[in-house]
Design goal:
This protein is mostly beta strands. The protein is 0% helix and 29% strand. It is built from no helices and eight strands.
């Protein structure tokens, strides 16, 4: 018996031009953070997720940490550092909240 698998996601293609015009995606909803190593700044932001409290978690791959913001983009806290012990990272790139409200980082 053969099964047809329907895709769970529908991907959109966006033409990238120089200078880049993102207006086809809609208006900005929130802008936060900047380049740097200070609190609320990023060296290389990667994975982003929101928890059930609407807090935004951003993995900073080269910064070896996670920055947390509220739903308005206000900086709340940072956690993590470079290393292999508990609470330390070696290039955090993805984050997700599980069914027990825990934030998981990979």
């Amino acid at each position: 018996k053969q099964f047809k698998i329907k895709p769970a996601f529908q991907f959109l293609s966006v033409k990238v031009s120089v200078p880049r015009d993102y207006s086809v995606l809609g208006s900005k909803k929130i802008v936060f953070g900047s380049r740097g190593q200070g609190l609320g700044q990023f060296l290389n932001p990667m994975g982003v997720t929101c928890d059930r409290k609407s807090q935004i978690y951003v993995c900073d791959y080269f910064g070896q940490r996670i920055n947390v913001f509220d739903d308005k983009g206000k900086y709340l806290r940072t956690f993590g550092s470079k290393g292999k012990a508990d609470g330390q990272f070696d290039g955090p790139s993805r984050t997700v909240e599980d069914h027990k409200n825990r934030i998981l980082i990979s």
